[in-house]
Write a structure and sequence with these properties.
The complex is a heterodimer of chains A (55) and B (467). Chain A is an all-alpha fold. In chain A, 53% of the residues lie in helices and 0% in strands. The longest helix of chain A has 20 residues. Chain A starts with 9 loop residues before the first helix and ends in a 6-residue tail after the last helix. By secondary structure, chain B is α/β, with parallel strands linked by helices. Chain B has one domain: Amidase signature (AS) domain (Amidase signature (AS) enzymes). Chain B contains 16 helices and 13 strands. In chain B, strand 9, helix 8 and strand 10 form a beta-alpha-beta unit. Classes of the chains: A mainly alpha (55), B alpha/beta (467). Chains A and B meet through helix 1 and helix 2 of A and helix 9, helix 11 and helix 12 of B.
């Protein structure tokens, strides 16, 4: 016999809602992302966006 | 006596107008007299500071100068590991964070001649923009006791504003340098991601953490940045780019620079007085010959959302042990924020990282093709009352935290340099501030504009009446 499932605490419900909202945002924003994009490209994006270094 | 800037005090010591020991003693006396009501320090290392000061005075007498900060007392957020001192990270545990190496930024400042006064109070685990802390006391805003000091580098900002130190180090994952700097009426710089090593400092989110200076003037921030910036083998994300002489570049002309004012988001929903103060600052920049124009910015809500996914997932992993084993030790709002991170999927975390790279390229291409610096408010309202900030359930507080940091968080996700500069006061005397944002590694440009602004305004010279 399994214990009856407890109703979720208010903060758990809120946390789930937060995560769901963030997941929705990620899904929408990621719809058109290039296949070749990688997280490690971020540092390269900063370097390429900077003014060239002067000697 | 403790009304010095870093540049002024360093010069006074160099010209023997004051000794390092005298300066250190003055700061320690002021901390002992006034900090019990501000609560900006967790650890004051009086003996260590005076011993270091005496050694530096001996060196000076012999003509040996360590560096540009010879004899200048500073203090550090209590997430920087400093040899011989505990690092609580604002938690109940005195030695929450240990590290095989000292905080690189602290080491570099010490090698430049700085003296360590102690370790500064902060929001627990650097999670929270209000500066409240159930274990070490809520850091009070020196301008208005009972009001928030900002966070998470609350003690770092309050200590500078109160005249307990001429400069401090803070860390910024979602606004934690700029928010407290803004509400305490001082300068705070979040450098470009990778400009300053985070080695030896407690991580909250390795994708978003930045270490930076908090000072009274932009000039002082430039001096501190030049010392702490640069590649460090201890932090793989630190950039190999050359470190410019930021202070020397401050007086270069600003006339040809273009400032952009975001058309959306940043000027929406502000408390009375905030919009007017920032727009008056823009008019002042215009009098310096800086052209200002409206500019369309990519949706900051997406940038903030991506930053939230990264921060929550990474902070939950980093601080998993305390959340799982000793959750009762954490403040409810801190625990709530960390627990959310366990529910972020691998898909969403990785996708957020990919999107971040794309958004950074897009933002630089769209915005910095048109302007050199973006100007926006740092805070949507002046320092709220602590009682109001902390009221309600943990979920209420977390929601309030998100609203208060909504103007700073996008620039952590983008990794761009952002400088908060005081630009006025609310009608009842609480500080207001704007942030100057530049392209990657353009700290020289944002510092130059901030310095030009401070040369023709006096907000940064005003002091809270503390006694």
């Amino acid at each position: 016999m399994t214990a009856p499932e407890q109703p979720a605490r208010a903060d758990e419900r809120r946390a789930r809602a937060d995560v769901a909202a963030l997941a929705g945002l990620i899904e929408r924003a990621g719809a058109a992302i290039a296949l070749g994009e990688e997280p490690s490209n971020f540092a390269a994006a900063l370097e390429s966006g900077a003014e060239p270094e002067r000697d | 006596m403790t009304d010095w800037t870093i540049v002024g005090l360093a010069e006074a010591i160099r010209t023997k107008k004051i000794s390092a020991t005298e300066a250190t003693r003055e700061y320690l006396d002021r901390i002992a007299r006034l900090d019990p009501k501000i609560r900006s320090f967790i650890t004051v290392d009086g003996d260590g500071a005076l011993a270091a000061a005496r050694a530096l005075d001996t060196d000076a007498a012999a003509g040996r100068w360590r560096g540009p900060l010879h004899g200048v007392p500073l203090a550090y957020k209590d997430l920087c590991h400093v040899a011989g001192l505990p690092t609580s990270c604002g938690t109940k545990t005195a030695e929450y964070f240990t590290s095989p190496r000292e905080c690189t930024a602290v080491v570099r400042l010490r090698e430049a001649g700085a003296i360590t006064l102690g370790k500064l109070n902060m929001s627990e685990l650097a999670l929270g923009p209000f500066g409240d802390n159930a274990h070490h006391g809520d850091v009070q805003n020196p301008w208005r006791l009972g009001h928030v000091s900002g966070g998470s580098s609350s003690g770092s900002a309050a200590a500078v504003a109160a005249g307990f130190a001429p400069g401090t180090l803070g860390s910024d994952t979602g606004g934690s340098i700029r928010l407290p700097a803004a509400v305490c009426g001082i300068v705070g710089l979040k450098p470009t991601y990778g400009r300053v090593s985070r080695a030896g400092a407690m991580p909250l989110s390795w994708s978003l953490d930045h270490i930076g200076p908090m000072t009274r003037t932009v000039h002082d921030a430039a001096v501190m940045l030049a010392i702490i910036a640069g590649h460090d083998p201890g932090d793989a994300t630190s950039s190999h780019r050359r470190v410019p002489d930021y202070a020397a570049a401050l007086d270069a002309p600003v006339r040809a620079l273009r400032v952009g004012v975001p058309e959306s988001y940043y000027f929406e929903g502000l408390a009375p007085g905030v919009d007017a103060a920032v727009r008056e600052a823009l008019r002042t920049l215009g009098t310096l010959g800086i052209a200002t124009r409206p500019v369309r910015v990519p949706d900051p809500a997406v940038q903030s959302g991506i930053a939230n996914v990264l921060a929550r997932a990474e902070s939950a992993v980093i601080h998993e042990r305390v959340v799982r084993e000793r959750p009762h030790e954490l403040q409810p709002a801190v625990r709530t924020r960390l627990e959310v991170g366990f529910q972020i999927s691998a898909h969403d975390y990785l996708q957020a990282g990919r999107l971040r790279a794309q958004l950074a390229r897009q933002f630089v291409a769209d915005v910095f093709a048109e302007v050199d610096v973006l100007v926006a408010p740092t805070i949507p309202e002046a320092a709220p009352a602590l009682a109001n900030a902390k009221a309600g359930t943990a979920e209420d507080v977390v929601a309030r935290m998100g609203t208060f940091s909504r103007l700073t968080r996008p620039f952590n996700g983008l990794g761009l340099p952002a400088l908060s500069v005081p630009c006025g006061f609310s009608a009842d005397g609480r500080p207001l501030a704007m942030q100057l944002v530049g392209r990657p590694f353009a700290e020289s440009t944002v510092l130059r504009v901030g310095h030009a602004y401070q040369r023709v305004t006096d907000w940064h010279t005003r002091r809270p009446a503390l006694g």
